[in-house]
Amino acid sequence: MTGEMIYYSLKDKELRVGFREAALQGITAGMGLFMPERIARPDSSFFRRLPQLSLPEIAVEIGSLYTGADIPQQVLREICERAFDFPVVIREIDQRKKVLELFHGPTAAFKDFGARFMAGCFGYFAERERKQTVVLVATSGDTGGAIASSFFGVEGVDVIILYPSGKVSRLQENQLTTCGRNITAIEVEGSFDDCQAMVRHVLAEPPPALPVRLTSANSINIARLIPQTFYYYYALGRCGGDTVLSVPSGNMGNITAAAMAWRSGLPMAHLVAATNSNRVLPRYLETGLFAPQPPVATIANAMDVGDPGNFERFCRVFDDEQGLIMKSVSGYWYDDEQIRQHIAAEYRRTGYILDPHGAVASLALDEYLESHPGMSGLFAATAHPAKFTDIVGPLTGGRVEMPETLARFADGVKSSVLMKPGAASLAGYLAGRYR
Ligand SMILES: *Cc1c(COP(=O)(O)O)cnc(C)c1O
What we know:
The chain has 19 helices and 14 strands. By secondary structure, it is of the alpha/beta class.
């Protein structure tokens, strides 16, 4: 190891902390995102061994470059083995296209990877610290469920989840609102961006004298971003470096992780950013102009983000070289009708059932490959199609099988706190609850 990894604030380069502080603070008082000072570069023997390494083995090797002395190697090994105890599946769809199924975790979405790694770290930090930790998280759908499931029952940690009322699926809402114990769901009468703004503002300016440590668990938390790189090493190590990778993108955590893995030396042919009608990123990749918009509701609802929180980090991974970004990454976007048609068409053509988010990535990969004959690719499927039976069922003849882990959430008693948008409402709630 070549010295400890330092994390700096994107808003203030002088603000520098270690992994533990960056993870527990989540975001700086000046609303800056933490960024590792450099992309960790595994040694060359790592890439030679990569095709044989398991996901937990990859996680320990790459993870330790980022966590350094803040988590002892043996503890990190235990965290990774516990967090990544479910399979990552690579399936061939046709000769040129493979799918990377990231939805075999407990909540059937890729957010399990980040959430479970982070919960392991926070559990370890809480053991060593006396203060109650309160994790605030804004969700557009899947984050909250993954966080709730990952943190459920963790001693010394409360989790408070904000979600936009009426804008998440029934199953997603049940995952958030039926846990109880140390998990609280807050139903915000607004959009995901409202929820994210509330969390960011309260973390930046907590209510005075709150006797708890507030932290975040959004994809803005570096402890969730880092583990999302692990499965890209795993997948590209197995598929080969001439593979084009397509990532369905919303808040841009997942694609930033892919870019980090790439820039660390992982061979990859090209990166494709796929979005729904919220097309800020494809537009940037085409024009060079980053213009956040109000979010639009779509059937790929976990990607309904108008102002992607990880955009700055994404650029930083490429040393803010716009030319390099535009050369390395292509962006495509699709509306609901195109997504629906693709789910139906791929099912007819191959028998494979896509969820709306995976479908966006599959479409974008197809479009890129069409203009690049001779290349082949891999797209990330980020949620199990059974999470979206109301959309996917009618398009595939109702054949979507529900994984056992999801079936548990089909019923249960909903319990949530209704709240108006605005940081003041959340601050007031916290001040009342933790006196
Ligand atoms: C969160 C989410 C995304 C978007 O990932 P980002 O890291 O926010 O870009 C895509 N698909 C699903 C199913 C998700 O839950």
